[in-house]
Task: structure prediction
Amino acid sequence: MVKQKKLAWLLQSRAYRKARSLVDATVGNPERLLALVANAQTKTTRDLSGRLSAVLDSTAAAFRLLKAYARGEYRQISFESLALIVASIIYFVMPLDVFPDFIVALGLTDDAALLAWTFRTVAGDIEKFLAWEAAGEHPAPTEDP
Result:
C-alpha cells in the first residue's frame, strides 16, 4: 500500500506531468524519439547497471521497441502504452525529477519505481514486441539510432 501511495504521488508530481506533456512532440518526431532513447541508454548504462538489473531487461526491450516505432517498423502498440513508456523514459532522463539523481540514497529510487511500474503495466505489449522481434519478420532495430 505504501508503494502504491508513493507511486500515485510520483504520477501526480510536476516532473511527471511535464514528462507526459512532452509525449506527443516526442512520439510524433522520429529523430526526437531516437535521441531520447540514446540519452536513456547512456543513463541506463551509467546509473542502473548492477543496481537495478531486474529493470534492465525490460528497459532494453522498451528501447528497441521505441527505435522500431520511430523507424516505422513496429506499430502494434496502443498509443496509451506507447505514451506511458515514452513519458517514463522522459522522466528518467530529466535532470531534476521528484528526487534528483545527485541525492545519493533517493536519486534513482523514483526512477526505478516508475520504470518498474511502467514495465509491469505494459508487460503484454513488451511481450508482443519480443515475439515480433523473435519471429524475424522485420529487421530488429540496431543499437545505433
Q: What stands out?
A: The CA atoms of residues 11 and 45 lie 25 Å apart. Residues 30-48 form the longest helix (19 residues).
